[in-house]
Design a protein that fits this description.
binds 1,3-dihydroxyacetonephosphate, single chain
Length: 261
């Protein structure tokens, strides 16, 4: 199976940083991005730099306790939140945090995005919880999201911003795009005076699509055991989860075919 090396993963973070900044999902030095390299190490953006102008050599590597092991700049102040996500979800390898205007507006208003407004939103994201406010740069931030991590891939952070996770940095970023687009559309619908939701009778079909695409919960995989210091190749861990997910998907399809026949 094709596996990206660290040089390519560094370029991916820079590319996503550029997109996040260009689309206005961050202002000034806001936001942070990370990729899990293996079960012990995470590649992350440094603190206090614009995500629109990253270069691969600016990125840093930390262990699962947040201790920096590589890089000349200091790691993001919100790395503990990223590490909390990786600890809880063995199936993900990337975290993207940003402050997109519309979804952050909902987060400031204290509203989760949990209404079935658009098929893309229901299928790709399910519903989006609002984690309670926690002070940035503290372990409390990760703690505030923890109750939601297992059952969601995108999160609003009250009075702060949004968070998206994925099997790679592109998936995490695309989830952020879908989230912000949905928040913008919900905002406009509410301004127009009506936010009609998709009829309950139609939701089963969308839920089935979500299931067929392997996007439902719970994702029954083990979490990484923190503490081990020996680097393990991604093919030994992250890909194992990917293979598991693929096998599950194929099994589900077979069962569906058998039920049909
Ligand atoms: P860092 O620059 O430390 O990653 O923090 C940016 C940010 O978005 C704070 O919420």
């Amino acid at each position: 199976m094709f596996e990206k090396n660290q040089t390519e993963l560094r370029k991916d973070i820079c590319e996503i940083g550029r997109r996040v900044w260009q689309r206005g999902y961050v202002a000034y030095n806001d936001g942070n991005i990370s990729i899990r390299l293996n079960k012990d190490f995470v590649l992350a953006t440094p603190t206090g730099v614009s995500k629109g102008f990253l270069s691969p050599d600016m990125l840093v590597v930390v262990d699962m306790d947040g201790k920096q092991v590589d890089g000349h700049l200091k790691v993001s102040s919100e790395i503990l939140m990223h590490l909390a996500m990786y600890r809880e979800r063995c199936d993900i390898a990337s975290v993207v945090h940003a402050h997109p205007v519309y979804c952050t507006g909902f987060a400031v208003a204290g509203e989760a995005l949990d209404r079935p407004t658009l098929p893309e939103f229901v299928v790709a994201l399910g519903d989006v919880p609002l984690a309670p406010y926690a002070p940035p740069s503290t372990p409390l931030l990760g703690e505030s999201v923890k109750p939601y991590i297992k059952d969601h891939d995108v999160f609003l952070l009250a009075n702060h911003g949004a968070l998206a996770i994925g099997q790679d940095v592109y998936q995490a970023y695309h989830r952020m795009e879908t989230l912000e687009q949905s928040a913008q559309i919900s905002f406009i619908a509410r301004m127009l005076g009506r936010e009609n939701v998709i009829a309950p009778s139609e939701l089963d079909h969308l839920q089935n699509m979500r299931q067929t695409m392997g996007l439902t919960y719970p994702r029954d995989c083990l979490t990484f055991a923190p503490g081990s210091k020996s680097p393990v190749n991604r093919s030994d861990d992250v890909n194992e989860a990917t293979v598991e997910a693929m096998v599950r998907k194929v099994a589900e399809r077979l069962i569906q075919e058998m039920n049909r026949g």
